Amino acid sequence: MTKSIWLGAALAFPIIYLSSWSWYVYEGIKEAPEITIRAEGYDPRNLISGHYLYLRLNWQDTDCTQFKDNLCHPNRFESIYKYYIPEDAAPKLDAAVRKEGTKVDLVFAYPENKSPYLKKMLINGIKWKKWLKAQKE
After folding, report:
1. Is 6 in a helix, a strand, or coil?
2. Burial degree of 52 (CB within 10 A; 0-12, 13-18, 19+)
3. Distance CA 27, CA 90 (A)
4. For residue 107, how many C-alpha atoms fall within 13 Å in the half-sphere facing its CB?
């Protein structure tokens, strides 16, 4: 009987811990203000890890008035972000990101004392999935 209790506790602890941690992270992101930063792509695929858009933040075309002090804070962000996309969407999104005049924006949760969290990617102001669907029609 004692072994089964210990076994149950040993199996439950990681599940409870990871669930609690996930909830804590989610709450921090949910309440954080959103910041939109212009990005530009340069390498769409990683053959070992799957299909990604590698996006470099473009601070020159970013509206810095989104920040509380009206100043951009590039030192709080990474300079390059990797955004996973499905294999069937990779060629179309790759072409869109590289095309002149296409606006690619990354939306971040921007908590005050934590690292920014990449939430979504917009193409010409539309979520990339909706943009892709509109291109197929």
Report:
1. helix
2. middle
3. 31
4. 15
Phi, psi dihedrals of residue 60, rounded to the nearest 5°: -65, -30
| Residue range of the domain that includes 10 | 1-31
Amino acid in position 44 = P
Q: How confident is the model at residue 112 (pLDDT cuts 50, 70, 90)?
A: confident
125: its two tokens: 């102001």
Q: What percent of the chain has pLDDT over 90?
A: 31
Q: Please check whether residues 55 and 7 belong to one and the same domain.
A: no
> Considering Cα of 101, then 106, then 107, then 108, what sign does the dihedral take?
negative
**Into how many domains does the chain fold?**
2
Segment 101-120 mean pLDDT? 90
Q: Which of 18-27, 46-55, 82-91, 106-115 has the lowest mean pLDDT?
A: 46-55
Q: What are phi and psi of 128, to 5 degrees?
A: -60, -35
